[in-house]
Design brief:
This protein is α/β, with parallel strands linked by helices. Helix content is 50%, strand content 15%. It contains eleven helices and five strands; from the N terminus they run ααβαβαβααααααββα.
Length: 214
């Protein structure tokens, strides 16, 4: 067997897939038939597209355990139909119990937002990060680059949690089923996840009234 470095990457990936499928079918005969009958993941994961943060791998879970949406820098604009559709489907139809927003150290999107270079179409996508950066200007003044990136990473995750708390589907699920919203940061250097504390200044009752949730 070759390696990703010595062979065509896709050819190698397909060979690895066949080997994994055969091994899994032999070791766990009911695994694929069970998956094919439907999905009931307890977790919705809203993360970054970065190749170093594969949610199932870093949590030690299996296919079928996590419903996933990933984009550049795990940004959650309230008006983004892509993420909004995923959130609605996962919460209202799949019935997840936990919603996770996960950022990570050394995030390329946060690094770009801290710089002033123009990249291309992604500049528009990074505008929410630049707005967060502006609000952190005094707090980050004099800090080394790595620490400034980390502050922005954490601020972005917290912003995502607040956006979720104001989503009507999430508000209803929190009140009706006790769904929980979490903000996590993955440390690429250690492989560990850290949960952030995100203050809830408004409270569920205020949000249910403000957003018209019965």
């Amino acid at each position: 067997m070759g390696s990703l470095e010595s062979e065509d990457p896709l050819t190698y990936a397909l060979a690895q897939n066949r080997a994994w499928a055969q091994h899994t079918a032999t070791a766990k005969p009911t695994f694929f038939p069970t998956l094919s009958s439907g999905q009931h993941p307890p977790i919705l994961w809203l993360g970054c597209s970065d190749s170093r943060v594969p949610e199932t791998t870093i949590t030690g879970l299996q296919p079928g355990d996590i419903f996933v949406h990933r984009n550049i820098a795990n940004i959650l604009p309230p008006t983004d139909l892509n993420s909004a559709a995923v959130i609605e489907y996962a919460v209202a139809h799949v019935g997840v119990q936990h919603i996770v927003v996960c950022g990570h150290t050394s995030c390329g999107g946060c690094i770009a937002a801290l710089g002033n270079d123009r990249i291309g179409v992604i500049d528009a996508w990074l505008l929410p990060l630049r707005k967060l950066r502006a609000g952190l200007t005094r707090e980050m003044e004099g800090l080394p680059k790595e620490e400034r990136v980390q502050r922005l990473v954490e601020a972005n995750v917290k912003a995502g949690v607040r956006t979720l708390r104001e989503n009507p589907n999430v508000i209803k699920a929190v009140g009706d089923r006790g769904v929980k919203v979490h903000g996590l940061v993955y440390d690429i250097k250690t492989g560990e996840l850290k949960e952030l504390e995100v203050e809830d200044e408004e409270g569920e009752g205020v949000r249910r009234e403000a957003f018209g949730v019965q």
